[in-house]
Design goal:
Layout lengths: L1 H21 L6 H28 L3 H35 L6 H18 L8 H10 L6 H8 L1
Length: about 150
């Protein structure tokens, strides 16, 4: 679980360096808003996995605090996602593809991360997970969604 938490944090830095520093994508409002939305989702995911690890180490209180905070943030995330698409749409109508494509891609990633954390698991790396989906004909509820429902 620590690797999941660290992986989310590393992604935040890697996305910034690769896109804005190395690739030279222009830091337009659309591109930055997509990046910031994705960053918010990844930071929440990292906090969840760090909290989950603490729970397994016997620190239930710390985990409960994280899950309650994320439960409060869930509707805030929906609002941020809705607001975050506005600069992308505006830039798409007014500018060239280079001024908004990254923002649009990262906005879509933020939506996927939100769904993956707060609703259903979207990544299935193990054969047993894929077999479960075929047997049950649905996606699994995310770990966070299950933990929120237990509080």
């Amino acid at each position: 679980m620590a690797s999941l938490a660290v992986g989310e944090l590393v992604s935040v830095v890697v996305f910034f360096v690769v896109f804005f520093v190395l690739a030279g994508v222009p830091p337009t409002v659309a591109n930055v808003s997509g990046y910031l939305l994705t960053t918010v989702m990844l930071l929440q995911g990292s906090a969840y996995w760090m909290g989950k690890r603490r729970e397994l180490e016997g620190h239930r209180g710390a985990f409960t605090f994280v899950v309650r905070a994320l439960r409060v943030l869930a509707p805030v995330n929906v609002a941020l996602i809705a607001i975050g698409v506005v600069p992308i749409v505006v830039e798409a109508q007014a500018g060239s593809l280079g001024r908004f494509w990254l923002g649009a891609a990262l906005w879509a990633l933020a939506v996927a991360e939100y769904v993956n954390y707060f609703h259903v698991q979207l990544a299935y790396g193990r054969r047993a997970d894929r077999a479960w989906i075929l047997r049950n004909r649905r996606l699994r509820r995310s770990h966070l969604a299950r933990d929120i429902s237990r509080l």
